[in-house]
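Notes, p. 3: input format for complexes.
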Amino acid sequence: MIPAIRGTHDILPGEVEKWRWVERTAQALCERYGYAEVRTPIIEREELFAKGTGETTDIVQKEMYAFTDKGGERVTLRPEATPSMVRAYVEHNLEQALPAAKLYAIGPMFRYERPQKGRYRQFHQLDVEVFGINDPAVDAEVIDLAWALVAALRIPQAELVINSVGCATCRPKFHEALLAALGQDLPKLCADCQRRAATNPLRIYDCKVEADQPIIDRLPHAVDYLCEPCATHFAAVRAQLDAWALPWRLSHRLVRGLDYYTRTTFEILGQTLGAQNALLGGGRYDGLVRTLGGPDRTGIGFAAGLERLVLALPDDAPIEAGARAFVVAIGEEGRGEALTLLRELREAGLAAQMELEARGVRAQMKRADRLAARVTIIVGGDELARGEVTLRDMGTGDQRAVPRAEAVSAVREALAGPMVGAGS
Ligand code: AMP
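Output follows (424 residues plus adenosine monophosphate):
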């Protein structure tokens, strides 16, 4: 046996239904909010992420599946979607082509991280991006979409946290204040923090090392150093979230791990998830489109981890069951007619199955049970000779005879209604 690669996984029947529910819910919500789907390649030039995600980030420095292809080109499996979405937006001039550059994508991402619950090497994201709209209303809309997704999936104990990390104008002052406050303590911080202090001091707030926390807790907060336009923008975002009654909490620690964030950042945490508790995260990245060779357009978006959404689903999530109708054949002559009915049901748009190897009625009923069929249609014997079949509700055990010619409409009714045989 050749096992799957560490940190990757197969999504099997039983689990895949949850995935489909999460994906369909996400798609339906994105469309409802006016976002158009984009599908970009899984493989891109390495340079796109070095420039886009940022040379100093863990993703680019340690986690990319990058290699030289047979043509000698440096390529990588994408570690995140945002740079690809920006590339597509710029490359296809989507600003002209689309009425509003509100986009979403769903697909696999690859990061060479240490696998644990909720953290994998191949994982999947819903990615939502808006380009060229600067108004705080769009920050609020994107956050609202994220919150609506978590609510639609009925994920319990979700928490929305927000922050503002400022812009190129106010960030330098904040960095200065951070380094000044660190002072003598800087050498006491972990090696990663030392590196961050030199490259992007804001990201010291990302540190998870226990011993560093008392020092980090004393550091100044980004929101206290915002320039006037950033402060006004953030106030408007919060006011809109309040107007929609979204329950947000301000978190000074929320700076996000990537270099490109400006102004609003946000995350939704799932309290049932354990250590890897961020269901989704995002924010504004006003300089990224230009950095990647496009026009000077603002951007904002988020990425949600589908594995984590699936993990956080409630036990009673309304997952579609397998077969809805199951045809049971009695004897050889019943089998021919059962196969005819099976095809009629499918042609009528109904989900129907049958045991394709000839077996006894009991074995067939057992299979119907295992497939969680709601209705079985038993075909054969004396009934068939009279031109009838038997309809059985698998939930209640109620049975009744219906004319063979009306079998399809009776099954349709039974699947639409609460129970077969009610009132008969
Ligand atoms: P990021 O792109 O790092 O901002 O992550 C956005 C979301 O993607 C996170 O909140 C997680 O839900 C998910 N995510 C990120 N990395 C992983 C991973 N290695 N495994 C599973 N999910 C991940």
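The two ends are 55 Å apart (CA to CA).
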